[in-house]
Every structure is written in C-alpha cells, then in structure tokens.
Amino acid sequence: MKKHEHHQISEVFKTSEIYETKTSETSTFHVGPIPIYGDIILAPMDGYSDWPFRSLCRELGSAMSYTEFVRDADVLNRPHYVESKLTYTEDERPIVYQIYGSNAEEILAAALRLREHEPDIIDINMGCPKNSITNRGAGAGLMRSPREVARIFEMLTRALDIPITGKIRLGWEDRQNYVEIAQIIEENGGALVAVHARTKEQGYKGEANWDAIAEVVQAVSIPVIGNGDVQTVADVRAMKNHTRCEGVMIGRGARGNPWIFSHLDRDEVPLPKVEKTMLTHLSRSLEFYGPERGLVLFRKFAARYLSPYGLPADLRKKILTREEPGEFRELLAVTIQGIERG
Ligand SMILES: Cc1cc2nc3c(=O)[nH]c(=O)nc-3n(C[C@H](O)[C@H](O)[C@H](O)COP(=O)(O)O)c2cc1C
User: What is the structure's pLDDT at 23?
Assistant: First the structure.
C-alpha cells in the first residue's frame, strides 16, 4: 500500500532473470476494458497468495494477480492489519483486490477506501465456506441473499470507475443458485464471474462439478473463470474444453507447482529450476517480511517444493527448522546436490 515500498521491491527484483513468462500478443479476454493476456490464473488463497508467491506466479505466467481476501470492516477500521495483504508491485497488474462482507453499504465504504490504492479490479468473495464467515452472511453466506448481491454490484459498479467482479461457489446443498447469482452479477454491472465448482458444505473436498461451470458460461455473456481441481496442464485444457470458460484458476495445485503457469507439470520441472525459483521466492519473502518471519513463512512453500524428492524425514525436518536464511540456503544447496547425485 505504501507507494515507495512498491518501487523499492520492484527495483530489487526487476532484473531477476529466471523467468520465461509466456505473454501472448493478443488478449485472451477482457474484464470490463482491461485486457487479460493468458488464461491461467493463481487463485486467491489466504496465507498463500501474498506478494512473494503471487508476484512469482505472475512472472511465471499467471495472467492476473488476486490478493488474499480482506474483510470490509478491517479495511475501514484496521488498515494496518490488512496493509501487507494489499501491497503489490506495478509489474503484477492487473491487480485484483478481494473483499468480503455482508452488507452493501459497508462493502461500498471499504471498496471506496481500497480504490485509493489503485487496484485494477475489485472482487467480491462469495465463496469462503468457513462458518465464522458464512454465519455473518459473508463469503458463501452471501449467496443466500441474492438481493444483497444485486445491491452490492449495483452500488459498487455505480460508485467506482474500475471493474467489479465476483467469485462464487455453487451455493449451498439445499440451494445451488450459482446460475442465478452469476446472472445477478452480470445484470448489475459485474464484469466477470469466477466459479469454484463446489458447494459450501463440500468445503475443499469431493469432486468439483465442471458441468456447473459450463452452465454458467451458457447463462451469462461476461467472462467466466472456472475453478476447482485443476492440477496439471492437461487439466487446464480439459476444463477449458469441457466448460468453454475464458480462464482457469488454480489454487492448491499451484502451491507446490508455480511452474504450472508456464505450462509445466511438476515432474517436468528440472531440479536447477526448482532451486532457482526457491531461492528467488525465499529472497522475496525475506525482503517482504524481514529475515525472521520471511523464513518462517517460506517454510510451508519449501516443504511443497521439496516433497516430490522423498527426502529422509530427519533431513526434511532439519531443512524446515533452520532459523537463519544463510543456514537454510547452505543446507538446501547440499540437499539439492544430494538429489542430483541420486
Ligand atoms: C488455504 C486456502 C485459502 C483460500 N483463501 C481464499 C481467499 O482468500 N479468497 C477466495 O476467494 N478463495 C480462497 N480459497 C479458495 C481458492 O481460491 C479456490 O477457490 C479453491 O482452493 C479451489 O481451487 P483448487 O481446487 O484449485 O484449490 C482458498 C483456498 C485455500 C486452500
């Protein structure tokens, strides 16, 4: 959020040379007036889609950058608490701020505040399945109030000069109103709808219902992003063929494989590339969060990057408990040499 901070971060990493971002000359689709180049997008994930990981995925080919969700009341009352979640760099654009709340007036007040930080798009979360959030009528709870969804989109699209989008689920087991909600978003000026093809009750389990995404594509003329269970490059193609969606959003599958945005499955990524990306990700984490938190917050990613290699448990533990970035890097280098030697 602090402008000078953005620029510092950009300067440091602008020259990083490891990325072969595949950009196409022609846009794949538009969100309102904003052209999107590419069709694979990192999903917003609380605790994961922070600047270090998000910017890495964007450079590897993710077509736009969704931030972690923030609560409307926090934007207004605890700006300090949400500041790091909303910090981005220019090279991530288009940047999508995601917000959750239950009441149109409050969401509007927060969106107007967020607008000051110059995101390209504001997205309304209607997918979070946590009871603590849905009980308040936010996240997937909003899908139970179609009239409030209409008010939110009507008020925000009228008051703001940037596109407003929605990320939905299928609804609740007793009321799978995804087509209705997608149409309400469109009718009230929304510029895109992303569909996580599970119900609230399913949480993150069970199979995503891609047929439902296809139904939404048929029902609206704004772009649709399909989401749920995409893990491989073949899955990306399969979802697009099955649903005809404009974009595919990848959440959990990207956490251990950001190279999917460069169209590489995990087993196709050569070890030197894994090492380079890990070191870049770690540097960004240290830069962003400082030396202590930076390493701690990187550990969950390191565990996923290393998981395909079946490291002995004691070595794995030793790597993931290092407290000094230098020690971590040294042990990583030795470990990678060991993997190379087989
Ligand atoms: C740890 C975690 C955090 C998430 N946080 C958010 C969030 O902040 N906003 C949101 O819209 N969805 C969030 N999601 C849902 C994902 O965006 C996505 O819809 C879901 O994981 C399904 O996609 P996948 O099968 O590719 O993982 C989160 C998911 C996970 C696993």
Answer: 52
- Domain stops at, among 263, 291, 307: 263
Q: How far apart are CA 223 and CA 221, in angstroms?
A: 6
Q: Is 128 a catalytic residue?
A: yes
Whether residue 250 is found in the same domain as residue 294: no
Domain end among 233, 263, 293: 263
Please check whether residues 46 and 171 belong to one and the same domain: yes
pTM over 0.90: yes
Greater pLDDT, 230 or 10? 230
Best mutation site among 40, 41, 42, 46 for ligand 1 pocket (most ligand atoms within 8 Å of CB): 46
Residue 33 sits in the same domain as residue 84: yes
Give the position of tokens 């995101």.
119
Cα 11 to averaged position of ligand 1 atoms, centre (Å): 30
Whether residue 303 contacts residue 332, with contact meaning beta carbons closer than 8 Å, is answered with: no
Residues in the chain: 342
Q: What's the rounded mean pLDDT across residues 181-206?
A: 98
Residue-wise pLDDT for 240-276, tens only, equals: 999 999 999 999 999 999 999 999 999 999 999 999 9
Task: Say if ligand 1 is within 6 A of residue 166 CB.
Answer: no
pLDDT at 214 exceeding the cut of 50: yes
- Domain shared by 165 and 16, yes or no: yes
Is the beta carbon of 44 within 6 A of some atom in ligand 1? Answer: yes
Integer Cα distance of 294 and 5 in angstroms? 16
Question: Tokens 């922070």 belong to which residue?
Answer: 50
The tally of domains found in the chain comes to: 2
Map residue 52 onto helix, strand or coil.
helix
Q: What is the CATH number of the domain that holds 314?
A: 1.10.1200.80
Q: Which atom of ligand 1 is nearest to the CA of 228?
A: 25
Residues 170 and 107 in one domain: yes
User: Could you tell me if the CB of 153 is within 6 A of ligand 1?
Assistant: no
Contact between 135 and 123 (Cβ < 8 Å): no
Do 255 and 275 lie in one domain? The reply is no
Please compute the mean of the pLDDT values over residues 59-75 and round it to a whole number. Answer: 98
Catalytic residue among 95, 124, 128, 143: 128
